Amino acid sequence: MNRLRSLFVFVLISTLLIGGCSGGGSKMSPDTVAPLITLLGDASVSIEQGSTYSDAGAAASDNIDGDISANIAIINPVDVDTVGTYEVRFNVSDAAGNAATQVIRTVTVTASGGESTDKWSLIWSDEFDGSAVDLGKWSYMIGDGTAYGEARGWGNDEQQYYTEDPANSGIAEDNGNTVLYIDATATPSAATEYASAKLTTEDLFEFRFGKVEARIKLPYSKGMWPAFWMLGANKPDIGWPGSGEIDIVEMVGNVEQTVHGTVHYVNSGNDHRSNGNSKTISQGKYSDNYHIYAIEWSPESIKWLVDGEQYYQVDIASDMKEFLRDHYLILNVAVGGYWPGYPDSSTVLPQRMAVDYVRVYRDTTLVNVPAAPELVAEEETMGLATSDALVAINSSFAPFQNIKIVTYGPGSPDPTVSTVAAEGPTSILASYPGGNWGGLYFELDTAIDATEYASGNLVVMLDVPEEIVNFEVKLEGAQGVGSLNLLDYTPQPVDNVYEKYTIPLADFMAQGTTLSDMKIPFALWNPMNADGGFVAGNILIDNIYFELAD
Description:
This protein is mostly beta strands. The chain folds into 3 domains: about 35-110, Sandwich (Immunoglobulin-like), CATH 2.60.40.10; about 115-365, Jelly Rolls; about 385-545, Jelly Rolls (Sandwich), CATH 2.60.120. It contains 5 helices and 36 strands. Strands 8, 10, 11, 12, 13, 16, 21, 22, 23 and 25 form a 10-stranded mixed β-sheet that branches. Strands 9, 14, 15, 17, 18, 19, 20 and 24 form an 8-stranded antiparallel β-sheet that branches. Strands 27-28-36-30-34-33 form a 6-stranded antiparallel β-sheet. The model is unreliable at about 1-25 (pLDDT under 50).
C-alpha cells in the first residue's frame, strides 16, 4: 500500500509539473471580440397615429457565447398616439463584458387620416449606403460663389469656402447606419476662415411636383446655417429669385428649437417676395436627433411637414410661375451670413449635418399636369426697370446706363421715383421699413471694367435722416465685395436737401472690391440707429457716378 501511495503521489506531482512547465499554452486567451446585433425587419418604419406597433426585434450572436439574442436590451420610446420620429435602440454585451455596436430602428408616427401610401411612388432616392458620395446623383459646388457669377459670400455674405475634401463631406457610419455628412470646419490658415460642402443635383436630377423628404440631423452653434432646399433649373437663364427657391428646411444654428420652410420668387411688381413659416418644438432641439423634413408640391400648393406633420402651406398664385417649373435639390451648411449672423467665441466647430436619405416621390393621383409656363424675363426679373433706375445715375456717365435697382432682405426698402432731385428732374426715394436687415443695390446688366477709376472716387448725392448713424455702402465686383460705413465720410452740402458724398474707390478695394468686373457700383444696406437697431427711414438717392483722380 505504501508503495502504491508513493507511486500515485509521484505521478500526480509529475503531471502538475509538466502542465506548469508547458508555457501556458493551454490557457484560454481573453475574450475581446464584441458580439454582433442584426436588426430583424426594416431599419425605417412608418405607422399611422393611433395604430398599434410591435417591433420586429433583433438577433445577436457572439463568437464564444453563441446566440445571445435573449440578452438584448431594447429601448423603445415609440408613442403611437403622438406624431414624431422615434429611435428604437438595441444593445447587448457578451459574458466577458464586450458591448456590441448599438443598432437603431427609426419609427415615424404620421398624422392619422393621412394620404394613402399608394399616393406616392418613389422616382429618385439616395440612401447613402455606398462608400463615397455618388457623383452620378450629386455634384459639388466649389468656392465662395464667384465662380458661379455670385458675389463673394454667395450673395448672403457667407463666410465659408465650399470644398469636395473628405474633411468637409463624405459617407460615414452613425450608430450602425451609413449617412452623408457635411462638416463645417475652421480653416484659419486658408483664404477663408471656414470650409464646408455644398451638393446639388443640378443637371443630374430635376423635377417638378411630388413629395420630397430627407431624414436629417442638423448641426448647431452660432453662425451655422444648414439647409436642404431647391432652386429652379432655369436659374442660368433668369437668375435668382426669378428661378424660384423652395427651402424645405433651414435652421439658424443658435436657435435649435426652430426650423423654417420658405419660398422665394418675383411677384407681378418685379419685387422679391418670400412666404414661409417656422416650426418650434417645446422640448429638445432639432440638432439632438434625426427628423424627417418634407414638402408636398402640387400645381396648386406647397406644404411643409416635419416628421409627417404639416405645419404650413403656400398656395401658388398666378404670379408664382416659378413653382410650375423644374427644380433641383441642394444640401449644404453655410457659415455666417446676413440672416443667421456670424460665428463668435461661443461657436463650436466642427459642426456636422448628417443625412440618412433623400427621397423624391411622384404623386400617382395627379392627372392633367399643366405644361410648364413659358419664361417671360421681363415679368420674372427682380428690380426696377432701367428707365426708373437711371433717374439716380448721373445723366452723362455712360458706364452706368444699363442698370436696374434690386432690393433684398426682410428689411429691404421700397424704391420709388421722386421729384425731389439733385440732378435732373427726378431721383430715387428708398423707404426702409426698419426692424430687420435688408438693402437696395444698383446692378449693371453686364459687368464693366472700372479699373481706370481705381485712384478716383464714388460720388453720390443723398438725403439721410439724422437718426441713422451706421449705413453700409457697398460696391461689388464679380470676384470681390467691399463695404464701408457711409457715415464715416463727411459729406458736402449741395442744397437744403442733398449732401454730396465722395468716397475713394481705394477704400472699397482695401475691403475686397474688385473693379475689373464691377457689377454693383452702388448699394445701401442696413440703416442702424445709435443703439445698433435696424431703423426705418426715407433716403433720397441721386447723381451716382465714378470720377477720375485729379
